[in-house]
Design goal:
heterodimer, A: 112 residues, mainly alpha, Histone, subunit A, 29% helix, flat, B: 477 residues, alpha/beta, Amidase signature (AS) enzymes, eleven-stranded mixed sheet
């Protein structure tokens, strides 16, 4: 067993999930079974292999450059109304569960 | 003319020549949905008003004798992970049950600009996480070819709607096989373009370095027409590639004689169903008969693809799904007194079991002490998997494989065993990890009359070649 009940609680906390007791039990079983399977990656020696975070650093337009440098075309000026106008205030609030006329309202942030 | 059995170019010319109207096409498909979808469950939301408005516009253009765009009047469906302005977009999740996007996904906007009529939003696994469509928070989708079986996933609704003639074409998304595997299970064509070929702007993110948008269609030619319409650089997605988009349709009829097709033994090993093996081998023989040269290739890291995928995809998902906090647009739990409690309870109530499982796995793989052992390790193996393809493509023009190790399985058959479900993607995840394009086309059926899929993988940005091979096979079959 790689993952313990304590790890499940810790990771759920990091992920902002509560999880019921039943869910925690299932999670313990499933994570261990999946991680056991994932262990086969350790059969491979990858000490000299660079990590690949993105497909796209392989085909940026300028072949002479490496990594994100090849994406010069993707950068733009940081301007207030850039590629798209900002949403009108009302539209930005339209899907909010609890807006007032100006803001997203949330419960108390500081707990005592 | 049976209006629900047309391909894209036939439907478009019929509208252009005034033999039918875009409105009649849309109505015929809505009638079919009314009649069939109660038992299939492919649509989550219909957007009749938007469809009729677009159809009217196309019909006015046709009446004025204007040259119509390539998808004019064609009734389509959009997987519910793509944002549609003013039309509810749930991603198959309760956490977005009431979400109405204020903008359109680029691919959706390009479909409409090309004249397509959007009928509605297609059911899918929650946040595109699944291989059977049983993870939809709303309803499972049933396979139109056998209602006791799954349509595949996660674009199950998109595949089932095309198979059941409820849409001429649909858009799906593919992160680990989610276009090609359901296409294979439902007996339709499914194309995953090269990473960066189609903008992801407005696609609800699952795993950003792996997510692709692509078409599900009745024919290879239709897939070529849709790809042409949606592909190309979009300033709103910095990973969309600045690579010219060819006109794919004229390329289809070029001869395939002399093309080199790779066959890798790693895709024909344990776990491959015998009937699928025989159908795919017969398809390879047919391609050989068309003049293709069959070349053995080796993709030695293939057995490591699933564990690599499930670390990278879940790590990225855990980060992407952190945005569902109940503040701006997603579900908020009632009666909460403090902010942190609101986050937790809203997410607990809004996410389903598979989504929580993947968030947990991804968070674990990224957490202090495990980051190098899991996440970075997987990124390194991703390099090895990509080098396998680089090496193979120095010798061949395309690689042919089965799309999935089995035909469609029964509802409930794998739903209690996440690992066995993950293995349904064993032949598809490699292309997502490497960013190469892949297409699944029907290649026969099992004794139980379940469709089998042939997968053709190509070089980066060389969709033209895999479409050409797929088209040649389709015409010969």
């Amino acid at each position: 067993m790689k993952v313990t009940q304590k790890d499940v609680a810790y990771v759920a906390d990091l992920a902002n999930l509560d999880l019921s007791d039943e869910e925690r039990t299932c999670m313990l079983r499933d994570l261990n079974s999946i991680l056991d399977y994932i262990d086969r990656l350790n059969e491979l020696d990858t000490s000299d292999v660079p990590p690949m975070a993105q497909v796209s650093d392989r085909y940026g337009v300028d072949q002479a450059k490496q990594g994100s440098e090849r994406f010069a075309y993707a950068s733009r000026q940081d301007v207030l109304e850039g590629l798209r106008k900002s949403l009108p205030h009302e539209e930005a609030l339209a899907n909010a569960p609890d807006p007032d006329e100006h803001f997203f309202r949330v419960p108390k942030v500081i707990e005592r | 003319m049976d209006l629900t059995s047309l391909t894209i170019d036939v439907a478009r010319s019929a509208v252009q020549d005034r033999r039918t109207t875009a409105l009649a096409l849309a109505e015929a498909h809505y009638e079919r949905i009314q009649k069939e979808d109660g038992q299939i469950g492919a649509f989550l939301t219909l957007c009749r008003e938007r469809a009729i408005e677009q159809a009217d516009k196309i019909d006015r253009m046709a009446a004025e004798g204007k040259q119509l765009p390539p998808l004019a009047g064609v009734p389509v469906g959009i997987k519910d992970v793509m944002s549609t302005r003013g039309v509810r977009t749930t991603a198959g999740s309760k956490i977005l049950e009431k979400y109405i996007p204020p903008y359109d996904c680029t691919a959706v906007a390009r479909m409409e600009a090309a004249g397509a009529v959007i009928l509605g939003k297609m059911n899918c696994d929650e946040f595109a996480m699944g291989s059977s469509n049983e993870n939809s928070a709303y309803q499972p989708v049933r396979n139109p070819r056998d209602l006791s079986r799954v349509p595949g996933g996660s674009s199950g609704g998109s595949a089932a709607a095309v198979a059941a003639d409820m849409a001429v074409a649909t858009l799906g998304s593919d992160t680990g096989g989610s276009i090609r595997q359901p296409a294979s299970f439902c007996g339709v064509v499914g194309l995953m373009p090269t990473y960066g070929r189609v903008s992801r702007y407005g696609l609800i993110a699952f795993a950003s370095s792996l997510d692709h948008i692509g078409p599900l269609t009745k024919t290879v030619k239709d897939a070529a027409i849709v790809l042409r319409a949606i592909a190309g650089r979009d300033a709103m997605d910095s990973t969309s590639a600045d690579v010219p988009v060819p006109d794919y349709v004229p390329e289809l009829d070029k001869p395939v004689r002399g093309l080199k097709l790779g066959v890798a033994k790693e895709y024909f090993g344990d776990g491959l169903d015998d009937e699928v093996r025989h159908a795919v081998e017969a398809a390879i023989d047919k391609l050989k008969g068309l003049g293709c040269e069959i070349v053995p290739v080796s993709l030695p890291h293939t057995p490591y693809a699933i564990p690599t995928y499930y670390l990278i995809a879940t790590a990225e998902a855990s980060s992407n799904l952190a945005r569902y906090d109940g503040v701006r647009y997603s579900h908020r739990a009632r009666g909460v007194k403090a902010l942190s409690e609101m986050y937790r309870r809203s997410r607990d109530e809004g996410f389903g079991p598979e989504v929580k499982r993947r968030i947990m796995l991804g968070t674990y793989a990224l957490s202090a002490g495990y980051y190098d052992a899991y996440y970075v390790k997987a990124q390194k193996v991703r390099t090895l998997l990509t080098r396998d393809f680089d090496q193979a493509f120095t010798k061949v023009d395309a690689i042919v494989t089965p799309t999935s190790p089995t035909a469609a399985f029964r509802l409930g058959e794998k739903s209690n065993d996440p690992l066995s479900m993950y293995l349904a993607d064993i032949y598809t995840v490699t292309a997502d990890l490497s960013g190469i394009p892949g297409i699944s086309i029907p290649c026969g059926q099992t004794r139980e009359k379940l469709p089998i899929g042939l997968q053709i993988l190509g070089k980066h940005f060389d969709e033209a070649t895999i479409l050409r091979i797929a088209h040649a096979y389709e015409q010969a079959a």
